[in-house]
Amino acid sequence: MLGKKKIAFLGAGSMAEAMISGIVQSKKLPAKNIIVTNRSNNHRLKELQRKYGITGVKRDNLDLINVDIIVLAMKPKDAETSLQSFSDSLKPNQLILSVLAGISTSFIEKKVPFGQQVIRVMPNTSSMIGESATAISPGNHTSVQNISLVQELLQSIGEVYEIPEEKMDIFTGIAGSGPAYFYYLMEQMEKEAQKSGLNSLIIRKIIAQTVVGAAKMIQEQDTSPEVLRENVTSPNGTTAAGLEALKGNGGGKAITEAIKHAAKRSKEISLQLEKNALGTGVIG
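The structure assignment produced for this chain is given below.
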């Protein structure tokens, strides 16, 4: 079902590249069937074309007539202008995927012909290695067949979860932005470990393996994170001392606030765009 489809990414940023990388590596879709475009950065298009064997096209030269899936991957503030630029040329059978944080399916549906099929998608940058946690929320007119098609496509970049769209903001705060939280944690661990004089590359591998191991324990054990934490925490031991310091310095609160703030920002983007569409506000 997927092999002969053609897909166009409107936007050539890090998320578009992460998805392209995962799709190409999976070989579920031939690289020649993937097009990427942006406004004016020809160097970026050539770079992606060279790395992945896809087709880079200047936005002004893009022809969507033979494209089956159109992926909105530009900056959220540019979404309305971009939709207006090609809305009139859309065909009923073309499917629109949006990976834009805060952009609702209803917002997109108002900018395209009535009945156009739209699916909101929230992957993360682990798409690049086929390990994304990706959520999808279909719009009002999307067929079961196209939902299955998109699930097949996105399974090439990781695990896929269909969720109600009203839960997409919290998913964004947890999984869309989540990798950056772990990178920040690992960054702090690396900085502290370097003070010991251990080789930096060895330290990085140790930290990465520790995170991978903990993640696999969650995936493979029918046990909650709380129970796993308690199981490895001996009274008055080293882990207990570390956790006490983590809690005492606001570690738990910091994680909670990171998720809440990212989810809040996702909601704010949506509200700003809706206001702009009504002519009562300005996109920030």
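Interim note for the steering committee: Residues 280-284 have pLDDT under 50 and may be disordered. The chain has two domains: 7-168, 176-259.
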